[in-house]
Every structure is written in C-alpha cells, then in structure tokens.
C-alpha cells in the first residue's frame, strides 16, 4: 500500500496543481507543450539512452511487446466499432484513444516512483517506441496520407534525434563534457514535473460530461490494453520488472496529445477530449490495481 500511495499521490498532487493554475491563469498551453516536446523530453530521452545499462535483448522484447499490443488493440477497436456503425470520424477517434497512451506525462513518473530507476530505464524505451509509432503511424491511420508522410513527421521529432544521439554516444563510449552533461541533466530533471503540470493545465480546459462511448473507450485503454500486454509479454518471455513496465505503460490513460493528432488529421475531437479526461481520472484507480498485480 505504501508503494501505491508513493507512486500515485505525487502525480495526483502535481497534476491537480496544474489544474488549479490552468483555471486561475490564462496560460498558453502551446508554449508549455513545445517546451516539453523540443527541450525537456529530448533531454530526458538522451540521458536515459546514454546512461542505459539495458541489454539489446531486453530492449527488443519491450519494443516487440509494444508493437504487438498495438496490433491487437487496433484489431479490437475496429472490431468494436464496425458492429456499432460508428461514423468514420468516431471510428478513427476510438482507434486513436485505444492506441495512444500517456506513457510520458503519467507513465514516466508513475514507474519511477513505483519501480525505481531500473523501471524508468525500461519506461523510456517504451516511450521512445510510442513517440515514433505515433508520429509515423498516426498520419497514416488518421488521415491516410501514406508511409512517406508518416516518416517525414518521424524525422522531425526531437525525441527521434535524441535517441540516435544517445545511442551514438553510448556506442562511442565518449564522456560528455561536464558542463554539457550538467545542462542536459538539469533539462531532463525538469521534464517530469513540467509534464505533469502541463497535463493538469490541459485537463482543466476539457469538459467533464461523459457517456457510454467515453466509458467504453476508457475501458479499452485502461483494462483491455494492460491485459493484452500481460499475455503478449509472457509469450515474449518478459519477466519481473521488464514485464511490469510493459504492462504498466500499456495501462496508462489516453495521451493528452491525442487531441492534437485527431484535431490535425481528422476525428471526433469532442469525444476524444472527454475520453482523455475520463480515462485519466479512472486511471488513479486502475493503475494501483495493475501495479499490485504485476508486483506480486
């Protein structure tokens, strides 16, 4: 119980602080998002990859687990949408909210507080996979722009270049100059708290009225996804902390940035916004449950 409280309560308190700030002050959310995307998150990824002690087998299994789970969830979302006769925009939105998890803003701090630095190492691998997947596949299934458009977005991702830079530095076994290392460390240490504050501010601007659709979409993300990831992780031979991280990252609520992708490439933004809020609120009950299950 102590682990659950120490993992969930800090996240809730910082996010609630963001909600309060977002309601009191007319902040520019795009500026905060850009700071996260172009400065803080790349620094965190660069540090995580450069300092990583994970073997390539573990990395490949986590990435494979993520990709296989996405394939399963895509099939489930389509299978659920077709019998209901959902409009094209709503069907796209259901696929997006089912596939795109908040593995950064909530996933990283939750796993850091509950599973420690070793868990964070693995969570960053999942986050990088997720970021590249969203940027490359997102334009394809939301707008149908093709593989070339998806790859173009991927190459423009700061996280992508931070990952390559981290891999290169680790491969060269070159020690980064102390001043640069400290600057990157300062940026990376700010990534999680700023991300949580941004999450709270974003949530403060989304209406709180839900229906059966939002509840069903949230259930796909919070319940079906981690259960599927647990089965896939076992099939891939993941054990202990590797399996725990795969399941917990798969159990995260809908990513807030899903709203940006749907707004940009097509979908039902109103339903996506409501699903984001509902899944985030419910995750404070479901995440401790799955954490307890995977750590027994």
Give a short account of the largest sheet.
none
Could you state the order of secondary-structure elements as H and E?
A: HHHHHHHHHHHH
Class based on secondary structure composition and strand pairing: mainly alpha
Q: Stretches where pLDDT falls below 50 for ≥5 residues?
A: none
Mean pLDDT: 83
Q: Count every helix, treating DSSP H or I runs of 4 or more residues as helices.
A: 12
- Let me know the number of strands: 0
Overall form: globular
Q: Can you give the helix content as a percent range?
A: over 70%
Question: What is the radius of gyration computed over CA atoms, rounded to a whole number of angstroms?
Answer: 18 Å
What is the first-to-last residue Cα distance?
12 Å
Kindly report the oligomeric state of this protein.
Answer: single chain
Please indicate the percent range of residues in DSSP E strands (runs of 2 or more): under 5%
């Amino acid at each position: 119980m102590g682990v659950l409280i120490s993992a969930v309560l800090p996240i809730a308190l910082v996010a609630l602080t963001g909600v309060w700030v977002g309601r009191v002050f007319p902040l520019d959310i795009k500026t905060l998002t850009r700071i996260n995307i172009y400065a803080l998150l790349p620094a965190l990824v660069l540090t995580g990859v450069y300092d990583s002690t994970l073997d390539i087998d573990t990395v490949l299994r986590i990435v494979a687990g993520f990709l296989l789970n996405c394939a399963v969830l895509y099939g489930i979302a389509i299978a659920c949408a077709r019998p209901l006769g959902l409009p094209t925009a709503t069907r796209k939105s259901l696929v997006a909210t089912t596939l795109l998890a908040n593995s950064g803003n909530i996933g990283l701090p939750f796993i850091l507080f509950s599973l420690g630095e070793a868990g964070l190492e693995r969570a960053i691998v999942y986050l990088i996979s997720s970021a590249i997947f969203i940027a490359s596949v997102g334009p394809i299934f939301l707008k149908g722009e093709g593989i070339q458009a998806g790859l173009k977005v991927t190459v423009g991702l700061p996280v992508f270049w931070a990952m390559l830079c981290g891999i290169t530095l680790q491969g060269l076994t070159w020690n980064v100059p102390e001043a640069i290392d400290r600057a990157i460390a300062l940026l990376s240490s700010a990534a999680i708290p700023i991300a949580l504050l941004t999450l709270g501010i974003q949530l403060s601007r989304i209406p709180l009225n839900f229906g059966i659709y939002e509840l069903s979409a949230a259930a796909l993300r919070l319940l079906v996804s981690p259960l599927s990831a647990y089965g896939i992780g076992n099939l891939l031979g993941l054990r202990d902390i590797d399996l725990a991280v795969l399941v917990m990252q798969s159990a995260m609520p809908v990513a807030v940035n899903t709203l940006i992708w749907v707004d940009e490439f097509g979908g039902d933004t109103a339903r996506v916004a409501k699903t984001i809020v509902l899944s985030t609120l419910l995750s404070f009950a479901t995440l401790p449950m799955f954490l307890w299950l995977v750590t027994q």
